[in-house]
Amino acid sequence: MYHTWMRYFTPSPVHQRLGLVCLGVGLQHGTLPTVGPRTLDHHVAVVVSAGSGWLRTPDGRRRAVTAPALLWLTPGVPHHYGADPDTGWDECFVDFTGPDAATYTELGYIEPDRPVVPLSDAAAARAVVSRVARAARRGNPLLEVETSAAVHELLVALRRARADIAPDGDPVLQSLARDAFTALSVAEHAARHGMTPAELRTAVRRGAGCSPKDYLLGIRLGRAKELLAATELPVAAVARRVGYDDPAYFSRLFTRRVGMAPVRFREQQGRAVPGGWSQRVPDPDHPPILTSEPAADAT
């Protein structure tokens, strides 16, 4: 016995330009019938949250699937899978497509070469799929946009839930972030971790989807923007704070990556609040409440 619920959508051409669009969503559990062999023209993320089963890859290998796990079904790749016929499994799935899928693949969020991905926990991904299911009510005027946004969120949730990533993130990336403002070369960063530069590049590419140089640059420029927007430090001082001894080089690099010079960025922001800057991240569940003193009565 099994239970299934699913909805399918056909986004309009204008919605296709959102970058990713949801084509379908489903929630199923029990001794589900075998799927395939078949080949699709779009992506499907199948999240198995309980139970076990198998997936047969195009090379004929039969891979064991034990919850929690993710099955990546990618366009043009034959697949064939099923739940254990005795115990079944609980699954949810989202079908999606769009040009942004290529970028997510390049960044390592979608893994065509890894059709079965062990997860540390399926709860966050299932919560996103549940929101897609709620948005799928008949007549919802926001259907395409809501579900498109949810696909992006689902890819992030699945990336974070991978069992090969620690709950607090990749320790190599954390260490790089701590040392981002120190004038160290990629080779020196690698040596600190007992790695070769090639091994560091592989680790950062796997964890962040970019090179170590670009990862560090993103952190440095982000901090530089904060200092430009919220302090009155000279550009040269900002450059030194984020690891650049040559302010001219910093300005050229900032201009090339941001699209405007540091001085222009500061003018555009116009939010200098001396003494008001904080490194503390607000708790979204308990945001700070701003209060103002009542004005004194006029006399």
Low-confidence region ranges: 295-299
Total of DSSP H or I helical runs spanning 4+ residues: 11
| SSE series | EHEEEEEEEHEHHHHHHHHH
Kindly report how far apart the N and C termini lie: 80 Å
Average pLDDT number: 88
The largest sheet is:
9 strands, antiparallel
Number of strands: 9
Per the principal axes of the C-alpha atoms, what is the gross shape? globular
Strand content: 15-25%
- What is the structural class? alpha+beta
How would you describe the overall organization of this protein?
The chain has 299 residues and is of the alpha+beta class. It is built from eleven helices and nine strands. The longest helix has 19 residues, at 212-230. It is globular, with a radius of gyration of 24 Å.
Q: What features would you highlight for this structure?
A:
299 residues, disordered C terminus, globular, single chain, 9-stranded antiparallel sheet, alpha+beta, 11 helices
Write the layout of secondary structure elements.
Layout: E1 2-8, H1 13-16, E2 21-30, E3 35-38, E4 43-56, E5 62-66, E6 69-73, E7 79-83, E8 89-97, H2 100-106, E9 116-118, H3 123-135, H4 143-160, H5 171-178, H6 186-192, H7 197-208, H8 212-230, H9 235-241, H10 247-258, H11 262-269
Antiparallel strand pairs: 1-2, 2-8, 3-7, 4-5, 4-6, 4-7, 4-8, 6-9
Summarize the entry for a quick read.
This protein is α+β, with helices and mostly antiparallel strands. The chain has helices at residues 13-16, 100-106, 123-135, 143-160, 171-178, 186-192, 197-208, 212-230, 235-241, 247-258, 262-269, and strands at 2-8, 21-30, 35-38, 43-56, 62-66, 69-73, 79-83, 89-97, 116-118.
